[in-house]
Amino acid sequence: xxxxxxxxxxxxxxxxxxxxxxxxxxxxxxxxxxxxxxxxxxxxxxxxxxxxxxxxxxxxxxxxxxxxxxxxxxxxxxxxxxxxxxxxxxxxxxxxxxxxxxxxxxxxxxxxxxxxxxxxxxxxxxxxxxxxxxxxxxxxxxxxxxxxxxxxxxxxxxxxxxxxxxxxxxxxxxxxxxxxxxxxxxxxxxxxxxxxxxxxxxxxxxxxxxxxxxxxxxxxxxxxxxxxxxxxxxxxxxxxxxxxxxxxxxxxxxxxxxxxxxxxxxxxxxxxxxxxxxxxxxxxxxxxxxx
Length: 291
Ligand SMILES: [Mg+2]
What we know:
Protein name: Ripening-related protein
Region (Disordered): 156-187
Strand content: 5-15%
Low-confidence stretches: 155-183, 274-291
Distance between the termini: 16 Å
Number of strands: 6
Mean pLDDT: 81
Oligomer: single chain
CATH architecture of the domain at 2-27 and 102-150 and 195-290: 3-Layer(aba) Sandwich
Bound molecules: magnesium ion
């Protein structure tokens, strides 16, 4: 039995899943798309939420810094709005033609013999358009986006109905929208956001459940240091994309996602191993699931 355990352990590839952020990770910041996203968010704050023009840039940045997304921060401090309306305004008018097909990345992803999942704070429509523009729409096993973790914010919809319809358990922090004011409050204590998103641990834990991910055997790629630091606390192997400077909480740092093979050649080694000992690998996975 002891020998068998040792054999199973030795036969497992080191990593079994790759978890990718979308924006500024699967395409570079230099594309210019993110600048347009910020511009549209600030316009939404000004035109739709009536926030004073001179306060918009700083509030936009500080909420993003504190909550992972400006939208999550706006909800936390008391602004109430429809998520779809926000996403439609912010992403609906983006110049997606800034993104070009990326056959190099496509080739890399398709050659990787490991599960690949997208985990983004963006909404599904935006994610689909970005992946389509990049030519990567068929490179991932599944996409976990804003709607996956935040099924609805429609008022007067019972929570139980959401659960049944979408099959995703709602967090206890989301209990409908009635508790939120339509105007911001002035509390000096940082209020909680009803939005589930990176960099909060809760969002990662939901993703692990939804996609059946073992964090210890997963590599997480993101351009945000806060997201990477949460991921590291949760035992993921972390790769910063967009900078070659390694910071605490980051196992690897890549100037570009195109450098995956140079930085992590072991991801491809799993291919040879799985070919040679495919049967053993299968047994090992089944053992893990039962445990
Ligand atoms: Mg990003």
